[in-house]
Design goal:
The chain is mostly helical. The protein is built from 17 helices and four strands. Helix 8 (163-171) crosses helix 11 (225-251). The two termini are 18 Å apart. 36% of the residues are buried.
């Protein structure tokens, strides 16, 4: 999608635009850490996560394990959100404590490589929605531009034609994809060296092995192999669906800048991001990612401060003549799916 015409202040002011906004945010105290809030959040989230697994153990060989698997998918995603916050150092300024929480939440609890995710996510934040720089919009199972669609062949082309209809069903496989990508990131090598930079590769590998062994052992210890397999399928499928639904509204269907677009940091982040309106329930359900514009402008801002930062950012964007995208949750999915459908149009034509 082209950036199109954007009302902008004189070029001479561009260098200071973000600095002015950052000053307002800082003066409001919104970059200060929220240790009390995060202690409460961590205790409640991990408490629910552990309580869920205790319930799995106590329930035993019962078909009621399948509804419980759906509940555990929600709990697992909430733990993953903690890993996201740790990766951005929203909890702690220092790298050590952030990595400790990230490794526990990601590798040990969820089975997702923290180091791989941080590397990938940082590249996304640096150049959101940039086809050549953002790994989240690179051609894969889904395509994000007509050019990517035209390059597809075989089953990939068949899927690209129908990707708007296949999007949510495909998310049911996202959990499996994340696990596979984590393993590949830890062991994958190119030209004689590891393809993905990772500070604690051995620790991450050991935690992923421990997670997998504990997961399989617990399920087989308390239920029959058939029920264990069905539990895993429901749990992993709904976890992937939830994760995908939390991240999909943020950038899909928003402008995709190219190397020819000369955007400063402020405009690069705001124009490519979309906020989702809603109550504090939406804040919790989406892990604060519904304030995507504020999060991209200030990645290390504690999640609890994003709601308070929004009026400041929105007002500042209005002053600068920068479009500020905000919509309801259902409409955000409609826009994202509309973009996917539009991208596949050349193949259907």
């Amino acid at each position: 999608m082209a950036l199109g015409a954007v009302a902008e202040p004189p070029v001479r002011r561009r260098g200071s635009d973000y600095a002015q906004l950052s000053r307002r945010i800082s003066e409001a105290g919104l970059l200060e850490r929220r240790p009390g809030w995060y202690v409460t959040r961590i205790v409640l989230t991990l408490g629910a996560f552990v309580a869920g697994w205790v319930a799995v153990f106590l329930l035993g060989d019962s078909w009621w394990q399948l509804p419980l698997a759906a509940v555990m998918a929600v709990a697992t995603t909430q733990v993953a959100f903690l890993g996201h916050d740790a990766g951005h150092r929203q909890m702690f300024r220092r790298r050590g404590p952030s990595e400790l929480v990230g490794l526990f939440a990601g590798n040990a609890a969820v089975g997702l490589s923290y180091g791989w995710w941080v590397d990938k996510h940082n590249r996304h934040h640096a150049n959101p929605n940039h086809e050549d720089e953002d790994p989240d919009v690179g051609a894969g199972a889904l395509v994000w531009t007509p050019e990517q669609a035209l390059e597809t062949r075989g089953i990939g082309r068949w899927m690209a034609k129908r990707q708007a209809y296949l999007f949510f069903p495909m998310l049911l496989l996202e959990g499996l994809n994340l696990h596979a990508a984590s393993i590949k990131a830890i062991v994958g090598r190119e030209d004689g060296k590891y393809a993905v930079p990772m500070r604690r590769r051995a620790v991450e590998a050991a935690l992923l092995v421990a997670h997998t062994a504990a997961y399989v052992a617990l399920l087989l210890a308390v239920m029959s192999p058939v029920k264990a397999l069905l539990f895993a399928v429901v749990h992993q499928a709904l976890w992937g669906l939830y994760m995908g639904c939390a991240f999909a509204p943020n950038h899909k269907g928003m402008p995709m800048p190219t190397a020819e677009d000369e955007l400063d940091f402020l405009r690069k982040q705001v124009l490519t991001s979309r906020n989702v309106r809603g109550s504090r329930l939406v804040d919790t359900a989406l892990g604060g990612l519904n304030y995507q514009i504020e999060h991209h402008l200030f990645p290390n801002m504690p999640r609890a401060n994003l709601r308070r930062a929004q009026p400041i950012v929105r007002a500042y964007c209005a002053e600068q003549g920068i479009p500020y995208a905000e919509t309801g949750l259902v409409e955000s999915y409609r826009q994202a799916l509309g973009h996917l459908h539009e991208v596949g149009q050349p193949l259907r034509g």
